[in-house]
Each structure stands twice: as structure tokens, then as C-alpha cells.
Amino acid sequence: MGQNEAVREFREDDDFHYFDRLVWEEHRRRGERIGIHMNGSFSVDTSHRIVRKENYFPDNGDSSLLSRSSKGFVLESNGEIVAVVTVTLHQSGNGNLHMLGCVEGSEAGLAPLIEAGIAFVKSKGGRKLTCFSEILPGQLTNGEFDYWATYGFKPEPYYSQWVVCQDFRRWEAPGELATDNVVPATEIDLEEIAAILEEDGEDLIAESLRYDYEELSPDHIFLKLVDPDNGRTVGIAYYQVNRHENQWGTNTLGIHIRPAWNHQGSYSEIQRFVRCVLASMKQLGVAYAGTRMSSRNLLSMIALCAEGFLLAPMGQVALYRSV
Q: Which InterPro entries match (predicted)?
């Protein structure tokens, strides 16, 4: 760290709108590093608030889950804030690095901020810090991977992909949809579902599930596909129905098929399970739907696309650094 540089935590009197501008500016530069220019079909609403003060300093004084599990750090140079970063912890103590923003020209000097995030995760008993990078179809690596490699981050072997249907109201179930062996999973403990995901290599999805569904409510829906021969769970689906702009929808759909069934020979069953999940959403009046799926579940992605869902034009790769 330079002589006139210092790292500190967010303060309540910080200018969080300025933090937003730093994050959006770096977001644009990140796109350029991998060949995406944030305009036209890739334009973003930079007026959207993403570093919210209330997530770190709740107005009512209560320590919410988010405020207890999140930290924000700033890098000051000669008394001026030149970079910000936020870190969110999961129950395991592992952390996700989010909302990186910096003044142009400061990208190469962010090691002190990264180390602050590492120290926070380590103090909570975590084992790794994870960040995320976009990747275009057909890319094996890009400038964003190289950027994070300078800070010691390594990419996971699989990517995640947004799959969306902006007007789900048009979807219609097949005339005769067999629902055999597709049952509500209300009796499954959430931790058991998370354990299945971890056993199948989906640690990040398991941690997100624990975080997003910490307090279960009637708008959380869980379904499972069971093997008719032994009754074991071979597929899991879950989503939360929420209201946005006077319509019901979900951006939290998750579908996971266990490895023993996740092959071309079981595609007809995977497709049937996907259709049953969509039929349950139709019954609840869902108007739009989105899911971020792991490439491990490629067949489920294909099944969703066959039902009218669209792949986002870029995927996302998790990069991690051990602490």
C-alpha cells in the first residue's frame, strides 16, 4: 500500500451515490475487457442503486441478516476515495466479493481492498473468497480472467447461465402432462437440499439457497423428482414468487438434476420434470421467470429453451481465492 493510501470500512456519512457511480464505471470497463460494449442491446440502467446505505446501516437500528453478513471497504488515496468493494458472507463463513468500483487508472492497485475482504472472511472462519466474471459463448478465457488472476483468483471449471422468459403468460402446458413421481418437496428440510447440491459440486448454489431461503414462507415453492424404483430424490426444483410492477414472477427458479440421471438417456424425464415445474408456476399466475443455472445442468437448460426460454448472451464464471 502506498504511503498516502488507506483502507477503511464504509461510514454512515459516506456518499453512497458516488459509490454507485464508481461501480457502474468499472462495470462498463469490465465489459470492454471481454469485448462487450455496454450500449444498444447490452445497455444498463446506471441510475439503478446497487450500493445501498441501508444494507450496511439499517434505519431502524436493527442488525438485519444482510447488514450482519456484509462489509463494505473503501480505498483512499491522498484523502480521496478511489475504489470500493463489498463482501457478503454465507453461513459457512465463505464470502462473495461484489460491487467492485474504482476510478479509472486505479484498477492495478486494488490489492489492499482485496486483502481487506480476505481478512474479513478469514475472521469469520471462511475458507475462500469468490468473485464473478462474465464470459461470452465460445470463450475459454478473457481479459477479465487475467485481471483477477493478478489478485490470486482461479476460475471454477463450470459456468452459470441466465435463462429467462419475459412473458411466461404465453406458455402452455402439453395437453396431457404426466406428473408421476413429481411431488411437492415441503417435507424436505432445506439443509438436506443444500447438502444434495454440495454433494453434486454446486457449493455456490447451496450457499445462495441457504441465504435466499433462510426464512421459509408460503411463496417459496419446492418440487422434487423421485426415482420410481427406490424413491430417492433425483431432481430438485425451487423458486420464490414475488410481485414486481403489479405482476407476479420469479427470478429465483432453480432446477438441479442429480448426476446419476443427468445424461442424454434421461432427457425425456428431465423434460417432463421441467414441464411439471413450469405448470406449477402457471397455476400460480407467474408472468415472468428467470433462472441462473449451472452448465452442469445443460440438459435442463435445453429443456427450458425448448419451452420458449431464452439464453442470456453471456455466462458467468466464479473465480475463487483460498484464504
A: Acyl_CoA_acyltransferase
